[in-house]
TrEMBL record:
InterPro entries: HIND, Leu-rich_rpt, LRR_dom_sf. Found in a complex with CFAP410, NEK1 and SPATA7. Interacts with NEK1. This is Cilia- and flagella-associated protein 410. It comes from Nothobranchius furzeri (Turquoise killifish). The gene is cfap410. Keywords: Leucine-rich repeat, Repeat. It comes from the Eukaryota. The keyword Endoplasmic reticulum does not apply. GO terms for biological process: cytoskeleton organization; mRNA splicing, via spliceosome. It holds the Pfam family HIND. Plays a role in cilia formation and/or maintenance. Plays a role in the regulation of cell morphology and cytoskeletal organization. Involved in DNA damage repair. GO terms for cellular component: ciliary basal body; photoreceptor cell cilium; U4/U6 x U5 tri-snRNP complex.
Amino acid sequence: MKLTRKLILAKAKASDLQSVRKLNCWGCSLTDISIFCQVPNIEVLTLSVNSVASLSPLTGCLSLSELYLRRNMIPSLSELCHLRPLTRLRVLWLAENPCCGNDPSKYRLTVLRCLPRLQKLDNQVVTEGEIALALMEGEEVSTPPGSVQNQLSNNGLPEAETENDALNYNMEETNKIREELGMKPLSRDKFSSPSSPSIIERPTMRKVAFVSSAIFKPHCVESDLNLENLNALSFQTHTLDAVLLLLKDLDEEELHIVHTATQNRLQTYTLDSGDVQSFPAQKTADIQH
């Protein structure tokens, strides 16, 4: 069954789709929710006990803070990629879908890695420790094949129509890393034109992206660095530089996530007081700045 404008207005008791803030469509046998492309201001949405298989129509619902999808037909966790732009989403109920699989722990960590801003998942409060663990051990969720996100560049235009392919490539690479960190994607105006002198004065964003990816994909680092002619660079130094560069773009909430993940990571090391004191003074000074 396709969700229609008439049904939405009747249930929400609204006069137009733009004014709809809350909607409950529990148990309506829905399979098609494409109408949500026209409901941009929805904040709380209940779609539990239906037959919804795709979340792509929700990508533009940027005000959405609570989403209830229990007992639907979501086939894969890759559908969560459509929810990444929803930076206000704090509550998600996804249980009893095919995508949940048979490993509750793996499922939960994967969802939280993809959506680290969630405060409640499947009616269970999300802890800071879970977020930190998810960022390190949760599986990376890839964009579903054939989705709109795969067909468009980060500035929302088809790649064939963009003014500068090199600039868009840098945006793609950088925003891919930012997604893995649970960060907001950068807009086009944050990038300099390839002809800008600033590009010559510092490493390209593509190189920064490759160095940053070492944090998550160390097995790929050697070949990537070779391709970029970075063999002579100190890996540890440039990884730190990349992390510090990304920190400048984080907001308070995102910095808190990074802080928690860092604390969790430090706990995996068994350093005695002598090891701590042996850290290079220069690196300490760099971090403080």
